[in-house]
Amino acid sequence: MTRTITLAQGNGGEENRALISGLFFRYLGNEILERAEDAAVLQTEKKMAMTTDSFTVSPIFFSGGDIGKLSVCGTCNDLAMMGAQPKYLTFAVMVEEGFETRKLEKIVRSIKKELAINGAKVVSGDTKVLPKGAIDGIMINTTGLGALSVEGVSVRNLEMGDAVVVSRDIGRHGAAIFAGREGIELESEIASDCASLWPMVEKVIANGVIPNAMRDATRGGLAAVLNEWVEASDVCIEIDEGSLPICEAVSGICELLGFEATALANEGTFVLAVRPENAERTLEVLRSFPGNEMAAVIGEVTDRYPKRVVLRSEWGTKRFMELPTGELLPRIC
Amino acid sequence: MTRTITLAQGNGGEENRALISGLFFRYLGNEILERAEDAAVLQTEKKMAMTTDSFTVSPIFFSGGDIGKLSVCGTCNDLAMMGAQPKYLTFAVMVEEGFETRKLEKIVRSIKKELAINGAKVVSGDTKVLPKGAIDGIMINTTGLGALSVEGVSVRNLEMGDAVVVSRDIGRHGAAIFAGREGIELESEIASDCASLWPMVEKVIANGVIPNAMRDATRGGLAAVLNEWVEASDVCIEIDEGSLPICEAVSGICELLGFEATALANEGTFVLAVRPENAERTLEVLRSFPGNEMAAVIGEVTDRYPKRVVLRSEWGTKRFMELPTGELLPRIC
Per the domain annotation, does B65 fall within a domain? Predict the structure, then answer.
């Protein structure tokens, strides 16, 4: 294969086929993909969940992951948040002419590794090579199809008294990308939280807890999730500021740059609304996964301020947690 | 809404939500999409076909279509070629900061129109806004899920004696894009063949013809399809050069620029391998659709030169039709 990607590798001809078989099929090949023609033929259940997302990140390789891992986690996590087991993924890769082939190979290896964690297969792909300058390196779109294992998990289902649980410390992905991009030197490196959530969701459900709602706190962070929930379920969520799990390095970045950790993106952190009697069991399950040691109950669903998220400080003061606006950290996921 | 797209409209916050509800939901809204959360919940059959494709075209609006129409046709056609009825589509739009909002609206209207022709629904979407210069205008990825209406349509199923049928005159999309891009003045404008094929496939099947193979002749054109078929089915295909339907304007562009019409991309033209006794009926069905008046039997499956496509000239000479290579018309679909 050539050292860098060429336009001819994206034109539907022989070079294109060679790239697909020599790189994508080599790592991601499976029976369905290999028998696929214009489309793959799948065995499905009666009810499936489907979602799509595009990924562009700068830098492409960051502490804790890369765009390949991100593109699997992002889409599989969206399925997992509906209580669906990720089964089939499609990949559409857009790569800039001149991109290093060994970097692309590294990305494909990350994809393979993360798919295995989810137990999902690639069933269809597309590769386009764009002329130098037409895109910035590489973009990946993934669409996922998952089998629903439970029903009714929904942003509309929050109930009075629900405990609001976060699966780990927040803000890592946004902070890691920002530090990587700006070359900020830190005493301890911040790794992105980028991770697949299905194994955690599966274990929570297997332990008899069916959350009323689950959501991964990606773009817009924890603040976006909670604001969406109060709106959709017409409730109030009261959060104890002191209970928010935030690691020191993320706190540091936030102070330095004037960000709120609650507005920073995450890529392997999710929020659950569970009945209060299930909160402890949920925490136990979550904490059994490495990285989730700081899983915490951060607040509760009330009816005090309908459609608002309230942040209660340790000194008893209250303020609203707003939906993030503006151009906060675009292009981080 | 702002006159041009801003970075803030892609960041997961309020502006992003406003763009999604004010533009995408306004035109593409349906019950499934409106109830979708991190993922949409779908009713599916036991066997579904799934495919993905990314679209980037310059110019974005061309004679006969635009990137919106193209992104529906491309993916729905891949499903149709497997004998699957397009049901559910996901859209991932990547748009450059500063893109005109009314152009985006025009594209979304094209999407709506073409979805209706297929009877398909958008069930999940994603919008990313990239900084000026990071992409060239707009790119769209669509993933489609379709319900198989017949089984066994496959590039591996060609049989000795099959008639090879093309649904209309070839090379229009490639020629139209090229003419549009280079500003070539022609006596008669060439419109792209860009069209949805499911209605034609549905009618062919309803008339009792189950093709052994079907393929839309997109990137790489007719030559790519036929070469893939002979390889996969281990047969020879002999094509009568004189029977190839090519309109005058496409012939003109090819002569001018030294292209073969058989290597030019199409976006609403497909090739069928049918038993010879079904050839006439297939032609009748195809010709009943406007634009397909030139549908023709162009050759047959033989065993003369295994894995090769042979072009027989009107003077009795023969040459091989090769798989296109190189950088022929990149970025046209």
Answer: yes
